[in-house]
Amino acid sequence: MDWTLEVVVVPVSDIARSIEFYRDKLGFVQDFETDTGGMHFTQFTPPGSGCSIVFGNGPGMGSMQPGTLKGLQLVVSDANAAREELLGRGVSVGDITVFDERDGGTFFGFDDPDGNSWAVQQIKARADKPLIPRS
Fold this sequence. Notes:
Blueprint: E1 7-9, H1 15-25, E2 29-35, E3 40-45, E4 52-56, E5 72-76, H2 79-88, E6 97-98, E7 106-111, E8 117-122
């Protein structure tokens, strides 16, 4: 039995502002957006990821306060390049910290406009062996 984590709900206060941040600043792919008047939500997937995020006021999305999700983690093959890319897009990012010299021990972080926090971990092996094969 496979148990795949495919969607994480991110609590936000302003859907339009969050769409702009995740799409235009982070470069996540917007998979869909549903706005029926009474319900408005959208789903984004980071490039190369098998897990997406969803936010809005859809079913089950109102149980967390905006900004309370902490420690979501992205993995990149080059932390310096990823950090520079985000800085170039206007994202406020933290300094790179090396907790361990071994692969996987280098991190930096950033927050979304509501204060949900993200960690970015460098795993150099992902450059040659991505989790999801490139087509």
